[in-house]
Amino acid sequence: MTLKDRLLEIALVSYRLLRAFAFVIITASLALARDLALVSNKSNAFGEVTVAELVKVCKAQSSRWPDGKPVTFVMRPPSAPEMKLVLEKIYGMSGSEVNGLIVTSNRGRLDHPAIVIANSDDDLVNKVASIPGAVGVVDVYSINSSVSVIKIAGKLPLQQGYLLHGN
Asked: Against a cut of 0.85, is the pTM above it?
C-alpha cells in the first residue's frame, strides 16, 4: 500500500468518526430538550392561564383560584435537569433561589402547601390528580387521563410558540 493510499484511508476513517461523533452530540442534545405541559386537577374549572397568572401560581403569589379552591403548584425538584426550562422561563431564578421560595411559601401552610415537590413525572401526575386546585408542569409523555392539559397564553403543548417547548 502506498503512502497516498494510506493517507486516504486515514482521512476516510477520520471522516466517518467525525460524522458518528456529530450524530451522537446532536442526538444527545435533542434528548435533553423536553417538551413540558401544564396539567391540572380534573376538578379545576379553567382550561387556560396567561403567562402572568402561571408565574404567580409558580411563585405562590396566588392563593386561591376564582372558584375558591386553594392553589397548589406541583413540580419536580428545582435541581432536576428537566426543570431548567421552568427555572429560566417561569421563575427567572436559580435552583437554590427557587428552593428558598418553596420553603418561604410553604411556611405556615402544612394543611395545604403552596408548592409541592414530586420525585418523578408519574408522582407529579398522581399528586396533581389527587389535590383539588393543583396544577403542575410535567413531561408531555407522562400525561394520562387523570389530569387535564391547560393552555398557556392560548397555546397547547407541542404548538409553535408554547412557553414550555423544550427546543
From this structure: no
Write out the H or E segment, with its range, that includes residue 139.
strand 134-139
**Closest to 76 measured CA to CA, from 98, 54, 56:** 98
Buried b / exposed e over 112-150, threshold 16 CB at 10 Å, is: bbbbbbbeebebbbbbbbebebbbbbbbbebbeeebbeb
DSSP class of residue 88 equals: I
C-alpha cell at 52: 402572568
Within 10 angstroms of residue 14's Cβ, the number of other Cβ atoms is: 10
Q: What is the pLDDT of residues 59-74, one digit of tens each?
A: 999 989 888 899 999 9
H or E stretch including 37? strand 36-41
